[in-house]
């Protein structure tokens, strides 16, 4: 699975206060557990930061759905659950980073804080351990969105 993505422009527009730009981002979320998906969406919300607005979500429960969606393109941030059954997000992350040209930034959700080395092995751009801290999840998504916007 090799894929070259067309550049997906991240929309920037003046904020309501007129100071700065808002990054409109699309987030692809993978977990086989609906509770984890709900927790991530609740943590990130519509605006994980003043300058970042999530305009589109896609929830995937299988690794195949993730690769299919990334092949189609148009995603700014990917969140993968490292604790997903059958195909864990850590191995999937490594696969995506090695096989997809200009892969979007990936946040992995690790099983515990001591699994940071696994996140590094997976080539993830950032990691947040379970149990999920909503503030850390929102900050990580916002940071990756800014990183993606800087590249595009």
From TrEMBL:
Modified residues (4-aspartylphosphate): 81
InterPro entries: CheY-like_superfamily, Sig_transdc_resp-reg_receiver
Phosphoprotein is among the record's keywords: yes
Domain Response regulatory residue range list: 26-145
Keywords per UniProt: Phosphoprotein
Keyword Phosphoprotein: yes
UniProt record, GO biological process: phosphorelay signal transduction system
Protein name per its UniProtKB record: Transcriptional regulator
């Amino acid at each position: 699975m090799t894929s070259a993505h067309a550049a997906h422009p991240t929309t920037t527009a003046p904020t309501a206060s007129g100071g700065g730009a808002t990054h409109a981002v699309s987030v692809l979320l993978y977990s086989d557990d609906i509770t984890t998906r709900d927790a991530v969406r609740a943590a990130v919300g519509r605006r994980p930061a003043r300058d970042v607005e999530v305009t589109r979500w896609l929830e995937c429960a299988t690794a195949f759905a993730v690769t299919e969606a990334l092949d189609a393109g148009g995603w700014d941030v990917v969140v993968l659950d490292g604790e997903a059954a059958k195909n864990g997000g850590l191995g999937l992350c490594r696969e995506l980073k090695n096989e997809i040209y200009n892969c979007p930034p990936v946040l992995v959700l690790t099983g515990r804080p001591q699994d940071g080395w696994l996140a590094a092995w997976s080539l993830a751009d950032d990691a947040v351990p379970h149990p999920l801290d909503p503030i850390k999840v929102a900050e990580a998504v916002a940071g990756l969105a800014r990183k993606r916007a800087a590249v595009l």
